[in-house]
UniProtKB/TrEMBL annotation:
PANTHER family linked to this entry: SOLUTE CARRIER FAMILY 25 (PTHR24089)
Entry protein name: Calcium-binding mitochondrial carrier protein SCaMC-1-like
UniProt subcellular location: Mitochondrion inner membrane
SUPFAM superfamilies: EF-hand, Mitochondrial carrier
All copies of domain EF-hand, residue ranges: 46-81, 112-147, 148-183
Subunit structure of this chain's protein: Monomer.
Record-linked PROSITE patterns: EF_HAND_1, EF_HAND_2, SOLCAR
The organism's place on the tree of life at top rank: Eukaryota
Main location: mitochondrion
Organism of provenance: Oryzias melastigma
Keywords associated with the record: Antiport, Calcium, Membrane, Metal-binding, Mitochondrion, Mitochondrion inner membrane, Repeat, Transmembrane, Transmembrane helix, Transport
Alphabetical list of InterPro entries matching this protein: EF-hand-dom_pair, EF_Hand_1_Ca_BS, EF_hand_dom, GDC-like, MCP, MCP_dom_sf, MCP_transmembrane
Length: 502
């Protein structure tokens, strides 16, 4: 062990400030964190002693193996509360697939993890002085689209700074991330990436983004598969509320008020319990092509709008996302029309998706598959713009006021920001969504009249007032939280199954 390392450890013990910036009032946490990692601060990669000490402390039942429960307890004692962290570490290091880590597997995992941590530390240490300061954190976050003041960058720095120098050296960096599944700052900040995994059934949001490293590997398509699967389960789980929303958008008015209970009762009386899932099949089916087209278009638009070698700014990301959304919607819009018609169909009206398409084509022509296209396209701009703006504002507010101990906001904050921003986006775009649905459903209502977007808006306001533009918004809001929660949980399980970690 080097003399500088030994000196540093001595001074650390003397002033006893290992947890000076961690505001967790737990004597057990203080004791365990110090005892578990005191020997890990200046590890000799060639020595097994430090690994053995840490392994023995985690192996509470002394069976020579560390399972998920033991590791979870150890991580909790060290203040690492991230959902699924213990499972991810065990899954990454478990070579014989017995569900736990023996000492050799534990050692190999930590050595490989340390190498990644070292490479990341070097990439963040821009002036090569062996330490990371607040300005370097600012610069790294700025490249990820997160702009912080120096004061806020210092708060993040403090979570890793042990000796109070307001700089983080390699030993402090390694101690902070040693038993953390994420091995670099980008992975931690990536929690803030407004991901399409938060599927609420309206595919108007900014598409998911991937790093160059992800795009050069097979990670990107696995994440798209995981996201599509999460969306499918989420939409199926909330399909009854989605159908009720469409039912109220089309049939509810001042003279024919339809409430939540009354709407469900009408649908069940007409077609039975399974009728609540009408239109869900095509709603799930359109996820894959829309996701793929949006992702590919988004990458191309980003290249067109950004300078070579530079990170794309937020406003340009919004422009690229909106254009990608428009491209994807144009390609799959006939499926949107089919979804509305199938959702509103009466028992026995159509034999299935192809029968519905054939009857629409025969009776109304090709143009029918693009009814409501203009309000749908216009709806992308307020939805995506407000969704992204609110998300960015909430994200920066959280980092400004609460990022004292860590830059990782945690699952609840992430879901909360996603839910609020999506809800605000829906509020802005909902009247256009209602007009789109009415236009798509015109023929199924027995109307031969071709009503334009502007005349339909005037007609709704004249008949039902301004709030008539928000018919069906209650079930739409009711499905947001379960939709976001289901899609997130399924996404996490799918990623684990496909071998992707954060």
């Amino acid at each position: 062990m080097s003399s500088s390392c030994r000196t540093r450890r001595t001074s650390f013990k003397k002033d006893g400030r290992s947890d000076r910036f961690l505001h967790i009032d737990s004597a057990m946490y203080q004791t365990l964190r110090t005892s578990l990692l005191s020997s890990a601060r200046c590890w000799d990669a060639n020595s097994q002693q430090s690994y053995q000490t840490l392994f023995d402390r985690l192996d509470t039942n002394n069976d020579g193996k560390v399972d998920v429960a033991e590791l979870r307890a150890g991580l909790k004692a060290m203040g690492i509360f991230r959902h699924g962290a213990a499972q991810k570490i065990v899954s990454s290091g478990d070579q014989n697939k017995d569900g736990c880590l023996d000492f050799n597997e534990f050692t190999k995992y930590l050595k490989e993890h340390e190498m990644k941590l070292w490479l990341t530390f070097k990439s963040l240490d821009r002036n090569n002085d062996g330490r990371i300061d607040a300005s370097e954190i600012q610069q790294s976050l700025a490249e990820l689209g997160i702009h912080l003041s120096k004061e806020h960058a210092q708060k993040i720095l403090q979570s890793m700074d042990i000796d109070g120098t307001m700089m983080v050296d390699w030993n402090e960096w390694r101690e902070h991330f040693l038993l953390y599944p994420a091995h670099n700052l980008e992975e931690i900040i990536r929690y803030w990436k407004h991901s399409s995994v938060l599927d609420i059934g309206d595919s108007l949001a900014i598409p998911d983004e991937f790093t160059e490293e992800e795009k050069s590997s097979d990670v990107w398509w696995k994440q798209l598969v995981a996201g599509a699967s999460a969306g499918a389960v989420s939409r199926t789980g909330t399909a009854p509320l989605d159908r009720l929303k469409v039912f109220m958008q089309v049939h509810s008015s001042k003279t024919n008020r339809i409430g939540l209970i009354g709407g469900f009762r009408q649908m069940i009386v007409e077609g039975g319990l399974t009728s609540l899932w009408r239109g869900n099949g095509i709603n799930v089916l359109k996820i894959a092509p829309e996701t793929a087209i949006k992702f590919m278009a988004y990458e191309q638009y980003k290249k067109l709008l950004s300078s070579e070698g530079k990170k794309i700014e937020t406003h340009k990301r919004f422009m690229a996302g909106s254009m990608a959304g428009a491209t994807a919607q144009t390609a799959i819009y006939p499926m949107e029309v089919l979804k509305t018609r199938l959702t509103l169909r009466k028992t026995g009206q159509y034999a299935g998706m192809f029968d519905c398409a054939k009857k629409i084509l025969k009776k109304e022509g090709v143009i029918a598959f693009y009814k409501g296209y203009i309000p749908n396209l216009l709806g992308i701009i307020p939805y995506a713009g407000i969704d992204l703006a609110v998300y960015e504002t909430l994200k920066n507010a959280w980092l400004s006021y609460y990022a004292k101990d860590t830059a990782n906001p945690g699952v609840l904050v992430l879901l909360g920001c996603g839910t609020i921003s999506s809800t605000c986006g829906q509020l802005a775009s909902y009247p256009l969504a209602l007009v789109r649905t009415r236009m798509q459903a015109q023929a199924s209502l027995g109307s031969s009249e071709q009503v334009s977007m502007s005349s339909l808006l005037k007609k709704i306001v004249a008949k039902d007032g301004f709030f008539g533009l928000y018919r069906g918004i209650l079930p739409n809001f009711m499905k947001v939280i379960p939709a976001v929660s289901i899609s997130y949980v399924v996404y996490e399980y799918m990623k684990t199954g496909l071998g992707i970690s954060h």
